Amino acid sequence: MEIKIINNQNTWQKFFEENGSPSFLHSWEWGKFQEKQGSKIIRLGIYDKNNLFAIVLVIKIRSKRGNFLFVPHGPILRIPHFSRLWRDSRGKQNLESFDFVQDKFRIKNYELRIKNILSTLVNYLTEIAKKEKFDFIRIAPVLSNNPENKDLFKNLGFKDSPIYMHAERIWQLPLGLPADKLLEQMRKSTRYSINRAIRENVMIEKRTDQKSIDDFLEIYKQTATREQFIPFSPKFIQNEFESFNQNNNALFLFAIINNKNNNKTKFLSPVSCLSKQALSDSSQCEVERKASSPDLQLGCGVTWRKNFSFIDNTIASALIIFTKSTAFYHQGATTHAKVPGSHLLQWEAIKEAKKRGCQYYNFWGIHQPGRTPKSWDGLTLFKQGFGGDQVNYLTTQDLILSPKYFLTYWYEKYLNWRRGV
């Protein structure tokens, strides 16, 4: 096997999409985002006889926590196209009819290929690390957390990282069912909250205009202060949105409440135009801001005029990132409103994902004892209410190359303590 640098976006994205596009953290856009953040990156392709078998985004990180080479939710491996009992990286077991003798041989060959890919990659990255004075290699795989995959990394000298870099346990909703069936699978209280938000005149606005960044940040800062967590910087949010929005792969959603006590705003209630299928029809509770007008145009022929006080009446917001296969709920912000706008916002995001042809809606990280803060329990309960499955990725892996690694190790142990892990 050999490694080549990939500079062609089409080559990268074609392989990424053909092999599941399981995480936006290995998309071409995420590499562009890292460059905007000031990080140096390398995009690698691992070939066997000129056939591309894996792509690897490598980020060169130099920070207070240490200097290391980082592979976020990767590498992305070529998916085997043969019938088998396949335990895929999404954590499900798909039983298909297969020839035990032939498939056992093919599976063995595939597992051997994964070992060769990882071994080739580690040797390549180790040379770079030693030459450029990085202290360790960190890989956050999108492989299932099972003994076989653990052994793959253990045999190469890796150990579990003291801290997660990106979500290792996620909550994911398959989108194959019709909207009404997805609703049926939700927790009863979640369905009730969606209905209640509609009755309370909550509207969901979808936006990609530049001002949407500032509007999101306003609510995001309030959330961070209230929940006492360190937020991403405004530059981080802006660069993430702009990097993905260039390819129409980013969307802000805002849950806006008709506050009848606000004397400055004249509201027209859209409730009368809701049909019996309001929950499954995106147009009924969705707002689209026209680029040429500051007014909010409603699908029911209703307009909220420009004297509308946006921030005062926004109770939740989210930044959704899209790949070909999946929509990701990556950033969120809420106020402590009595109306459950977040539930309706998520439901509209799920329907948007279906509209775009996504196979999954990824709610991102949920609580994992010993790895994430205990304060995530409430957020986890919220996400699980929409139905779906828990997916466990292999714990982030570290390959130690220098004694300086242990400075990072103990610093990150301290961070875990500070976060309440």
UniProtKB/TrEMBL annotation:
Example GO biological process: cell wall organization
Keyword tags: Acyltransferase, Cell shape, Cell wall biogenesis/degradation, Peptidoglycan synthesis, Transferase
Database matches in InterPro entries: Acyl_CoA_acyltransferase, FEMABX, PG_Glycine_Bridge_Synth
Keyword Transcription regulation: no
UniProt superkingdom: Bacteria
Entry GO MF terms: aminoacyltransferase activity
Family, similarity comment: Belongs to the FemABX family.
Protein name, as recorded: BioF2-like acetyltransferase domain-containing protein
Native organism: Candidatus Roizmanbacteria bacterium CG2_30_33_16
